[in-house]
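Predict the assembly for these two chains.
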Amino acid sequence: MTTDLIDQLGVKRLAEYARVFNSTRLGEDEIVRILPLIDSLMIFSWPSFLTRERTRVMTRLRFVQSILAGVNHVPFSYFGTRVVVCSNAGAYSDGVAEHALALVLAAAKRIVEQNIQIHAGTAALVRHGEAAARIRFLEGGTMGILGYGGIGTSIAKLAMGFGMKVFAFSRRAGKDSNVQVGQGTRGLNRILETSDVVVLALPLTKFTAGIIDEKALLRMKKNAILVNIARGELVDESSLFEHLKANSDFHYATDVWWYKKGRESLMTDFPFAALPNFTGTLHVSGPSVLATGRPVLLAVENTLRFLKGQTPKNIVDRSEYISK
Amino acid sequence: MTTDLIDQLGVKRLAEYARVFNSTRLGEDEIVRILPLIDSLMIFSWPSFLTRERTRVMTRLRFVQSILAGVNHVPFSYFGTRVVVCSNAGAYSDGVAEHALALVLAAAKRIVEQNIQIHAGTAALVRHGEAAARIRFLEGGTMGILGYGGIGTSIAKLAMGFGMKVFAFSRRAGKDSNVQVGQGTRGLNRILETSDVVVLALPLTKFTAGIIDEKALLRMKKNAILVNIARGELVDESSLFEHLKANSDFHYATDVWWYKKGRESLMTDFPFAALPNFTGTLHVSGPSVLATGRPVLLAVENTLRFLKGQTPKNIVDRSEYISK
């Protein structure tokens, strides 16, 4: 069973190995009737019609493929270990990494500030002196990447292409000899203190929420660039606003926003947009990659592996998501 | 003889091999008195006090080092072939290439458009659908670089790091096997027709002025990104404005502006800033590199080569600048 997100070509390829149902085109009655027949689910986020009770009747279910990169939306307790769950890890990495570099460069070259001035008619051409000296260069600088999974790895590759030295903060020790991986509080502090650019590419967990708080901001270089392509809540909103106001050479560039009333929102508690050292985009990085069709393509290919009896990629360890 | 642009360390290094005069700290009388003693000049652009008559009395002059990348400001007819003139080629390449990629990414990710909306309070978070599909990716795309000198080469290297295929338009055949170099009108047209991103890195000459005219724009992809880090006059202003108005998916991102009344100016003939598919910066790329001190450092090092009796780098062929 799939959703409307799968394109016709994808459905055709799947149909060579399975009968394909599109849940968005079925009535709730029909869905309930066919649930006991379903071997495999391809979902974006876990469908609301699949309650605990309805999942229990899916006795043939052996395989769940997520189109979203992560699987924290999957209710593992609804089914047992006979169901293999696969993430779509890596499907978004290169695209989100491009967006991260776009934000780094927009901050370094003060793209938004200059265009706001051009729009307002207050701009003047830079010749020599102070205005030119405020433009930053990536070459020779240091990037710290917090969270060194698929996206972090892709960002590191791009940053090294610009001649940056890269440090990463990760739970796991690194395999790439060009990137030094730090761990624990000491590793984190060292990266914050030495980096010209810090990129947040961490999952949001109870350990990472608010990891960039007042103390972390004070450890960072006065003219650092902080980029967030992960989750707004990694950064303490009020501390960040005070820090940006007090340090005009510090820049925050983000694609993600804080949750207000249960959902991500542009309604911030402080007027970030009025600050010249703030750059924002509208959480476009993931959705724009989805729009290329690549994540669906990879999800279809992985489901085909299951349907052909091969071992699928990105099998998730359910113990990382439920206690038992 | 040097100018104020040379820092104290530079002067100290030069002073080990020569008596160093700073022209900006001397009166005109003093300058005229010491001109016959000068062996070597280090200039930003050719100084206005050095008229043809005054240059003629500089009988010891053997070496001129430009701090600017190009030497089109040097009046070669004022002196003979005994004077070696050196450009500062390459000193700005990596920095200007970074700026070019910043503009490419700002256009691809619609950074300015989104921030103008955030400022105006008219923005909404992108989830799926059309707005996300308008974001472009460099990976797998094609970049055409018009002008394949130091800056063009640096841009190509960065673009390939993003997984782009690179074509270059150049007078000379290319040496880099990863970049296909096209020549002549046919080569140019092919690059315009096939590129997702076109970067202008050409010198402005009588052959290149207006190279991007109405016909060239019509050859380009409807959703191409055109980036200009060279000179405004490479692009026909009125044709560009009409093209941007008619093709909302086409984007022009520029660091350089057209000349009005003899100097580069933000006072365009058309309201470019009002278009969502226009991104501008304030001719910061060159001056910001100069502000790092690197071009002066390289100019000092090259002058030291001359003073030590070694062969300096970047010796210019004067026949490319004067007819005889």
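The mean pLDDT of chain A is 93. The longest strand of chain A covers residues 142-146.
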